[in-house]
Amino acid sequence: DSLAHSALLGVALGLAVGISTNIGTIIICSIFTITLIWLQQKKILATDTLLGILAHSALSIGMVTLSLLERSIDLHSYLFGDILAVSTTDLITIWVGGAIILLLLKIIWKPLFASTVNYDLAEAEGMSPEKANAIFTVLLAAIIAISIKMVGLLLITGMFIMPAAMARNLSNNPKQMVILSIIGGLLSVLIGLFSSLELNTASGPSIITAALFLFILSLVKFKKKSELKQ
Questions:
Q1: 102 C-beta neighbours (distance < 10 Å), count
Q2: Minimal CB count within 10 Å: which of 15, 85, 118, 187?
Q3: CA-based end-to-end distance of the chain
Q4: Residue 77 contacts residue 147 (beta carbons within 8 Å)
C-alpha cells in the first residue's frame, strides 16, 4: 500500500523529466524500498510509522509536483485507472514485464516461502531471506508501475490482497494458492473490464469490485468446507 502511494511521485518524476512514467515509478518505488530497509536497520522508528511517513510524504510531494507541471494531466486515471489511457506500448510492457516478474519470482520462491514460514530458520539455512524480501519488494514496485493505468495507484493494493485472500479460502497448499490467485486475478480483470465497458464506469473500481465479488463467493465455499470438516 505504501509503495502504491509513493508511485504518484514516480509518475510526477517521469512527466517532469520526460521519461516513461513506468520507469519513473520503478525508480521512486525502488528508492522507497531501499530507504525503508535502511531506516528499519537503523531502528529510528517503528516500521508502521516509517511506512506512514514515507508513503504519505511521497504521495503529497507527487501531488504538489504534478500541480506545478505546466501541462494537462488526467490525475483521475492515475489514481483510479482508465482503460482508455492504456496504449499498445503499455500492453506490451504488461506482457513482457509480467513474464519477467514471474520468472524472478520463481527464482526467489524457495527463500521467500521459507522466510514466510519461519524467518529465523530460513536465515539459519543460509537462504538469504532479507535479500529475497528486498527483491520481492522491487517486484511489487514493478507490478505497480505496469498496472497503474489500468487499476490506479489507490486501488492496486486490492489486487494484491483480494485474489490471494480468495485463493487462501479455496486452496490446500501454497502452490494451489498461487495458481488460484493468478486465476482469480485474471477473472477479476476480465469481469471488471467487461463491466466497465458495459456500464461506462472507471476500470480500476470495476476490477476491484469484481475481485471483491469473487472473494465473497470463496467465503461461501470456505464455510461449506469448514462445515464438512466439522
A1: 12
A2: 118
A3: 37
A4: no
Cβ pair 115, 127 in contact under 8 A = yes
What whole-number distance in Å separates Cα of residue 143 and Cα of residue 45?
28
Quote the pTM value: 0.75
- How many Å apart are CA 131 and CA 147, to the nearest integer? 24
Q: Would you say the C-alpha torsion 145, 149, 154, 159 has a positive or negative sign?
A: negative
Please name which of 154, 132, 133 lies closest in space to residue 144, comparing C-alpha atoms: 154
Distance CA 43, CA 179 (A): 37
